[in-house]
Specification:
Order of helices and strands: HHEEEHHHHH
Structural class: mainly alpha
Distance between the termini: 31 Å
Number of strands: 3
Radius of gyration: 22 Å
Number of helices: 7
Shape: elongated
Strand content: 5-15%
Length: about 180
């Protein structure tokens, strides 16, 4: 059904998957006027590429190929795995700082200088660790996006398609209906 209705999307994904040496991911169409696409899945054998109807409406074939190549690059570069590891590590750093801080509040009833210094260090870590973890997560995410842009451009051998698609997406006023943190 999807192949006949969304012929350009299906063919672009199939051709680019072959070019990238990846298995064809499952394709999903999201009924939403906002232009968006994403890739997800635990590995390349279980990958999914989803695109909104808004994206399909505003892009021509070359631009659509650029976006699909970008998403396939995320799959080929294992960005979902890397993002998961980064989020877990960021959460771990935050959890350790929280445990350290709580152990200072509840662990010792002695009131001495060492406890005070350790409490201050724990408080500083509790404040700075989540900020640092978030900054690291955002920096890794941004680097992976740039890598996917570059790899997608190499995959299609037509970087103007992706550049025009990104410009159209940026300038589109529609907002995803069901955006969720």
């Amino acid at each position: 059904d999807t192949r006949e209705i969304h012929f350009d999307l299906w063919n672009a994904t199939e051709n680019l998957s072959i070019t990238a040496g990846l298995p064809m991911p499952s394709l999903y169409i999201i009924e939403d006027p906002a232009p968006n696409a994403f890739a997800t899945g635990r590995d390349k054998e279980h990958a999914v590429v989803a695109v909104t109807t808004g994206l399909l409406d505003i892009l021509d074939r070359n631009e659509l190929e650029g976006v699909i190549a970008h998403e396939l690059s995320h799959i080929g570069n294992r960005d979902m795995l890397i993002s998961t590891v980064v989020v877990v590590l960021a959460g771990f750093v935050t959890l350790i700082s929280d445990i350290f801080l709580r152990s200072r509040f509840y662990g010792s009833s002695r009131n001495n200088k060492a406890t005070g210094v350790i409490l201050l260090i724990g408080l500083a870590l509790a404040i700075l660790a989540p900020i640092a973890a978030t900054l690291i997560r955002l920096a890794v995410s941004r680097k992976r996006e740039y890598l996917a842009d570059a790899a997608g451009s190499l995959l299609t051998r037509y970087p103007e398609g992706l550049a025009r698609a990104l410009e159209k997406i940026k300038n589109d006023p529609a907002v995803l209906k069901r955006a969720n943190n």
